[in-house]
Design a protein that fits this description.
It is a single chain. The protein is mainly alpha-helical. The chain has one domain. The protein has helices at residues 2-17, 31-43, 47-65, 69-83. It is globular and about 30 Å long. The structure holds copper (II) ion (CU). Copper (II) ion (CU) binds at residues 28, 33, 37, 76, 79-80.
Length: 85
């Protein structure tokens, strides 16, 4: 029974966290996330979307460095859209 309730709790947490693109928060504006995005963009096959995603990611990184979290999130959202996330 304990295992079942732990599983249910884990499922509830997974549902709360949701897919990466559903969150719009500061966790996007970290070096870790930027590295994930670099890897995602490298995997893209649509050259136009890849270029657009790269442009938004660069802008997002620049905003992050400038301490502009809102700008970082806005550009990240656009980059995610290009990635199909
Ligand atoms: Cu991202």
């Amino acid at each position: 029974m304990l295992k079942q309730s732990m599983f249910a709790a884990a499922v509830a947490v997974a549902m709360t966290l949701g897919p990466i693109a559903a969150q719009a928060d500061k966790s996007w504006c970290t070096d870790d996330h930027m590295a994930q995005m670099d890897a995602k963009i490298a995997e893209m096959t649509d050259a136009d979307k890849q270029k657009s995603a790269q442009t938004h990611l660069d802008a997002s990184k620049a905003a992050m460095k400038a301490g502009d979290t809102d700008g970082c999130i806005t550009h990240m959202k656009a980059a995610h859209k290009d990635m199909g996330l």
